[in-house]
Amino acid sequence: MGKIVQEQFIKFHDVIRLDVNDNKDVIKKRDMLIDEIRSYLKKMCEEKGIKLIRFTSFNQGSYAMGTGNKPIYDEDDYDIDCGLLFEIDKNDYSPTQVKKWVYDALNSNQFRTVEWKKACIRVQYVEEGLPKFHVDFACYADANSDSKTYLAKGTPTSSAENKKWEISEPKKLKDLINNKYSEGEDEGQFKREIRFMKRWKDYQFDSVYGKPTGISLTALAYNGFKPHTKDTFSGASDIDDLKTLKDFVNYILNQFDWDGRIRVSLPVPPGNDLFEKMTNQQCEDFKDKLKELRDAIADAENEADPHDACKILRRQFGKDFPVPPKEETGQKRKLAIAGSSESA
Question: Nearest 5°: phi and psi at 291?
């Protein structure tokens, strides 16, 4: 059964994964927006008679880490996270002042909307009344006297304490995830398991409120993922995504404390608790759903027929998880049993 179920996990991953080709339109728009920001800054600095403010851009978030998924529903949109490293000292400009440069540079087109977010400026594109995709621009001060990088936090209406420069190492986070394993089966399974859990949470939670974030699941995987890609005794290739998923879910369940909360720190500065915004009830709901997933995995493992095992898994991951035809899996199972009897 294991080989057939593993084939379904690979097919599932191929369906849900978001790669470069899926994001071509977004990348094209991102590059256009970056050019608009550069043009705005050039004009602004010329008018003020000051030295040109420069920046470099880089991809961040799930797209950069290779852990992105396609939206689960048609009304959901694609997104890409882009960091802007400004060659400025944080002591020379307020965080909202820097973010306002980006907001003003991009808020000039009727075919998109520009929004202030606490940690970024979001550019939203809409098609036929529905969100199509958005680009989030995070703004950093990257020429500081202490040689550290700081993220601009806050909006014009934020309280004074929430308008701040926050130490950040976004490139280090990307490197940690991408370099967790050298290229090979372990790395591939690591990225797949993150995508599986992100799709699971999107399917199991109706609202963004109380739903664990993608970065929280990624951090948990960084800390607790264990690959199952080789036979323990022979060392031969033996990729088992179901077993890996079972171990990972059990690891997450073991991270809940005596008070019912789960905590995991971002593995780079500022090292904040990625579950701090979830209420106690939301943590409890998350734990209950994880237990249901754990039990479903156990039930799938105990099923003799891969068809029935995959039906169980589909109830956890949604309709994109494939279920092989029963007539095919039943026939293969009988052949396997017959082969075992002859060997005996």
Answer: -65, -40
